Amino acid sequence: MIAELTAACADLVTDPDLLVSYQRDEADLCDSAPPLAVARPRTTEEVAGLLRVAAAHRIPVVPQGARTGLAGGANASANALVVSLTGMDRILDVDPANRTATVQAGVVNSALREAVREHGLTYPPDPGSWESSTIGGNVATNAGGMCCVKYGVTTEYVLGLTVVLADGEVLRCGRRTAKGVAGYDLARLFVGSEGTLGVITEVTVKLRPQAEPALTLVAEFPSVAKAGEAVSAITAAGLTPSLLELIDRTMLRALEAYRPMGLDTGVQALLLAAADTGPRAQADLEKIAQCCGDAEVYVATDAAEADALLTARRNAHPALEHLAATTFGDGGAVVVDDVAVPRSRLADLVEGVERIGERTGVIVATVGHAGDGNLHPNIIIDRTDPASLAAGRRAFDDIMALGLELGGTVTGEHGVGLLKRDWLERELGPVGLRVHHAIKAALDPHGILNPGKVIAPAVDSPA
Amino acid sequence: MIAELTAACADLVTDPDLLVSYQRDEADLCDSAPPLAVARPRTTEEVAGLLRVAAAHRIPVVPQGARTGLAGGANASANALVVSLTGMDRILDVDPANRTATVQAGVVNSALREAVREHGLTYPPDPGSWESSTIGGNVATNAGGMCCVKYGVTTEYVLGLTVVLADGEVLRCGRRTAKGVAGYDLARLFVGSEGTLGVITEVTVKLRPQAEPALTLVAEFPSVAKAGEAVSAITAAGLTPSLLELIDRTMLRALEAYRPMGLDTGVQALLLAAADTGPRAQADLEKIAQCCGDAEVYVATDAAEADALLTARRNAHPALEHLAATTFGDGGAVVVDDVAVPRSRLADLVEGVERIGERTGVIVATVGHAGDGNLHPNIIIDRTDPASLAAGRRAFDDIMALGLELGGTVTGEHGVGLLKRDWLERELGPVGLRVHHAIKAALDPHGILNPGKVIAPAVDSPA
């Protein structure tokens, strides 16, 4: 079998010391194991060859990009073949006349941006991991980011895909045209399917003209409820900021402890907002400031100051790691949660999360995309302490339940992976789950594609 | 069986005189027959009851909205139950704080716009039929329109759906939040599936703040190639007009013959363009004018003049009917084609279509969404003359082949229905077709949902 895999893809890793490094993504609390082997293909044809071997031998296949995921979607199991797409890093085409680019799945998000910048174009979706995560991974998880409040998430930018199916056949779906309705929207079925329906090897994306420089402000609120009201007021005023981020008190303190910025850690919540509306940006920012009511508002006076504010926001993850380490030492861990609610329920969500933290006795630091109603409550635990782990798990479950109760979803942008499979079932309900299983069975009848991710294997699954 | 159907939905039409009027949509050249019965449900539960009866008796089900489709997707057959959704016309919820609305499938596009206007919001997708077509039909066909060049097509606005599945189960998929990645993107799988995967009964759409008043221009070109160059130049300049429509010479003459506007019918092509970018609209329109090179450019000096230009464009369909009737009398018919190519190939498409018209000896009048590379070559035939019909069919096929050859798609926004099933197979290729059949079988194992539309029944289909 290894010989067959090597024949399909010469770059096949079986050295146990190396296999360990392909074991998991960045999610805590998810099972993983070193895989059987890791293939590092360079072409769609190599991926197809690998899948044909895997199909013949019923070997589970786990596609991986940069493993920056936060839900265990790329975690390996002991009997699995990992297909690492990071070596497929060629930008195949940039077409300024049609505002499209076609790339191999392993191209890093920031590399694509860099490549199209000279044409005055950009690829908007900006997940926190944009300097390391791959377009293939972004597509497989339908990644979001900070600019999505104005510019939308990954799926809005996917025009066409090349996908290797479970039997090794190569599907080209979608299009290169601005519009098209020829048949089912297969491309968007693969977007966000987390490698469970096929292995994405090439992506044609839509590009946009570069946004104009943004003006940025920060508003300090005496209560989370006031920050939530400001977000609602901004929406109600018909404004579309290019960024609208919320940072709660715990998160703010973690940021200041990690890299002091001189932010007032006495406030209960911060909103970061930006406007990139060209000649009207100044006026829009003033209207945003007005929507913030009594909050103290500081407008960044130059690009350097604005960058500093955004850098603070972008430091959220290392700041949380720092907080976990300083609180719990080596056992410290961060469970990054991800829940989205209707914008109007944002304050209810933040306040509810605070109450959950108090009730369960765990530290929860919240940051997120307020303008989308999409927040990341980060749960800080000591993974070496069973009581802390159990309390963290309770907080996690309570946050999921709260999100659903508020009319929301258990994942706004990080995906289901292994972490949220049970909660997905609750969100989908029995009919939705049945349709998921029917589609999975239609595209992957033997259940070899990233098994156990997103949905549990069907009871009668042969795999 | 009729008794069972009546028990499921009291408003069941079986009067042959009435059945005839539910026989077909607006597509020419597609088979149709009066159905067995027409059910006019008012609730999702009634639709579910109808589908349970249909599933038990293997009755083909043809969902219908306003039957304004142009591909035969809503055409009935003699053994079919038509489920007409036009009676499900309630707007269930308008939520300005979250910029969403939830409507029953039979709500007319313009009624939704009207209902959200008082909140300063709009629902952008504007198919030509917007004053009569339903949101359910728009979603089932992923309808486009004139504003899509800036604001995107229907699928960009669909957040959540209620769908009655082939077995009568009710699926709620998608979400009410701005973002969400919980499981497969089922909502977008149903968008554009033309009633072949389920019957859409309720839709939650995303709304946008109303656009600002647009400034409009018309540019007259001495050749189609020059108009195509202008479209490319507008894209290359990073401009995003809110409307960018092309009218060729034959279409222009038809418009003038129908409702004289004083447009110069000596020119080879017109572009209509608009900018709604607020304080910069004037500057953007000037840049658009510059991109038109040597063309004669007329800027509408007031809203009335701009409206008149758009009305001329909106009159395309009646003007073509008029042309067909004046040319061929009662036998005159218009086959509305719909092809999209990469924007950079637009001029090649228009010129190729002209050559096809000359070669086949049929009148072809072209109009369409130049900014999206999506054109409607309209073929004028005499349906009572077999030679004219055959020539029209040849022109139609040659235009499809040309679209694919230019890297395009056989349907930009009208859908596949019955009209383009063979061409869809060509566009998809064997792997894509196989995946379509697998998904159809997963969701409609007995093939009762709008059978024969989009894809031919599978060879081993039990229906």
What does this structure look like?
The structure is a homodimer of 463-residue chains. By secondary structure, chain A is of the alpha+beta class. Chain A folds into 3 domains: 2-84, 2-Layer Sandwich (Uridine Diphospho-n-acetylenolpyruvylglucosamine Reductase, domain 2); 91-209, Uridine Diphospho-n-acetylenolpyruvylglucosamine Reductase, domain 3; 215-405, FAD-linked oxidases, C-terminal domain (Vanillyl-alcohol Oxidase, Chain A, domain 3). Helix content of chain A is 36%, strand content 20%. Chain A contains 15 helices and 19 strands. Chain A has helices at 2-8, 16-19, 44-57, 109-117, 135-141, 148-151, 186-190, 224-236, 249-258, 281-291, 303-314, 316-328, 346-360, 386-405, 421-443, and strands spanning 12-13, 37-39, 61-64, 81-84, 91-95, 100-104, 121-122, 158-164, 170-174, 199-206, 208-209, 215-221, 243-248, 269-275, 296-299, 332-336, 339-340, 363-369, 374-382. In chain A, the strands form 4 sheets. In chain A, strands 12, 13, 14, 15, 16, 17, 18 and 19 form an 8-stranded antiparallel beta sheet that branches. Chain A has a 5-stranded antiparallel beta sheet with strand order 5-6-10-8-9. Chain A starts with a helix and ends in a 20-residue tail after the last helix. At the A-B interface, β9, α7, α8 and α15 of A face β9, α7, α8 and α15 of B.
